[in-house]
Amino acid sequence: MHPMRTLVILAALMAACVARAGDVRFVPPAAETWEGIPVRILVEVSNAADVQAPIGPKVDGAQVRVVERGRQSRTEVRNGRVSSSTSVTWAVEVTPEAPGTLAIPPISVTADGVERSSPAFTVAVRRSDAGDLLSAEIYGSPPEVYVGQPLDLVLRIVIKPYRDPNYGQLNETQMWGLVDVQGSEWGPFEPEVADLVRRSAVPRSHQESRDGATWFVYELKSRTWPPKAGSGVPDLKPVKVAMTYPIALRETQSFFLERQLTISDARPLSVRAEATGIRVLPIPEAGRPGSFTGAVGEFRLDVQAKPVDVEVGQPVTLTLTLQDASGRANLESVLPPALATNAELTKDFRVPTDALSGEVSGNAKRFTVTVRPTRAGVEAIPPIDFSSFDPSTRSFRTVRSTPIPVTVRPASRMDLAKIVGAGAASGGGDAVPAAGATQLTAVTEGLVANKPVSTAMLARAPSGIDALLAAWLAIPPLAAVGALAWRARRDRHARDGGLARRSRAGRRARERLRNAEDAAGIAAAVTGLVEDAVGRAEGTLTRGDMDATLAAGGADAGLRHRVADVLARCDRARYAGMGKAPEADLRAEAAAVIDALDAAGLTRMQRRAS
Question: What are the boundaries of each domain within the chain?
Fold first, then answer.
C-alpha cells in the first residue's frame, strides 16, 4: 500500500475515534470566594454515547460533592439534513472550610471509554464575616430528653436587616426572600421549608435589639425522637443556611413606568447551624420490668378476643390496642407487649414467637395475634402487661388488661363403632350390626342405583334473570366504558403537557391569594394565574411581559388595565408599607381580577396565542 494512502487512512481512523469520544468542556471556578461559600467547576459532555459522572477529587480543607445539572438533546434540520446532539452537565461543588488558598486537583471524566482531565485550579478564600450579618443555631425543647422521648428542635436564623441610606431598611419579608432556599441544606426542617415555599409564606419571625441595632429572628420547628444517648442530636442531618446579602440598591422603572427597587450589588453568605445545649439520656436499667419493650411515654392498653367459645387447638384472635395518652409518642417505633414471656398466658395457650407488625391510626397502634388453647377447661385469657418509661416521673409504668372469659371445650373425635357397628370389633364371623345402626347394601350399578331417574329430575327450571344478576352482568361493560374514558383523558393529557396545569390555574390562584400575607403574595397569585395559563415557568413572568401576554391571549383592554392597576398597587405596598398587612380592598380587587381572568377563558389563552 502507498505510504501516503496509509497515513490518510490512519488520520481518518483517529478522527473517528475522537468524534466517538465526545466533546468535553470544563468551565473553571471563580477566582475568589468566602469560607463556607462553594465554588463550582462545570463539566459539560456533548455527543457521547457512554459517559460516566465525574468523581469529586479529595481537597484538603474543603467538602466536595458532584451534582448533575441537567441533560439536553437537540435535533436540527438544515438544507434537508438532520443532525442531532446531546449534552449532559455536572457541577463539582467545592466548599472551603477555612480562609486561605484552595488547591483543587484535576477533575477527570470518562466519555466513550476516553478519560479527559481538567487542569488544576487555585481559588483564594477570604475570611467570612457572615457572623456579623447572619447566624443560625439549633436548640431543643426541652434541652434534656431520654432516648425515644419527643424532642422539639428549633432552628433559629438571625439576619441583620439591610439599610440603604436613600431607600431605608428592608422588612422581614424582603430579607427572607434573599435566603437561598434551594441552595441551603435544611436537614430535619426540610418539610416545613417545603410547605413555606408551597404557600409563598415566611417563617415565624420577630425582632430583637442587639447593641442598639435591630435583628430579624426567624424560627423553624421540627420534632424528632433521638434513637441513642449522647450530647447533641445523634444522626442529625447537616443544616446550612445560605443567602444573598445586598450591598447596594437601585431604583428602576417597570414596563408601566412604576418605580421599584432592585439589588445592584450583593455578596453570598453561608453559615452552618449546630445543635447546642442538647443532651440525650439513656433509659435507666434499674427497676426495668420484664414486660418493658422500649416504649417511652404514657399508654393505655385494651385487649379484645374473638371467638371466646372454642375447642382445644382452635385459633383465638387477640386484638391489642395501645393508645398514646400523652399524644407525643413515636407510635411507629412502639413494639407490642411481650406475649411470649407472659408465663400466665403461655401456660394454657400456644403463643407465636414471630415479630408482630402493628397498624397506626391516629394516636393508637393496633396489633393482631392468634393464640390457641392447649387444654380444655381454660376459663379466661389472663391479663396482659405492657410497660413504658415515663420521662415526666423518671420511672417505669405498667398497665394491665382485664381477664377475658373464654370457654374451651375438648376437641371433637369420630367414634368408628357408631359407623361400622360394635360387632366389627369381634375376632371371628361376620360383623353383626348394632341395634339401630344403618344397614349398608353393596350395589353394582354405580351412582344410578342410589336413586331412580324420575320426571322431577328431568324437569327444567325456569331461566329467568333477576335484577341482582342483571346488575352483576352490567358491571363489566360499564367498567370497560369507564376505563376507555380514563384512557382517553390520559392520552389527552399526554398530548398536551400543560392541560392539567391550565385546568387548575384558577383554583391555584385563589389558593395563593388566600394564603398571601403581604402585597408580594397577592401579586404572585395574579401573575401565577397567567403563568399557569400560558405555560410559563413559575416566577418568570414580569409586569413588563404581562400586558403583551394578555393581549396575545385575547384579553380586552379594560381587563388588562385592571391587572396592571392591581400589580402597581402591590409594588407600592411592598416598598412603601414596609411589610404591613395589605389593605382589604387590594385583596378584594385582586380576587375580582382573578375571577375575571378565569371567566374570560384564560385557560385557553395558550392555544389562542399560538
Answer: 20-126, 130-280, 291-409, 499-609
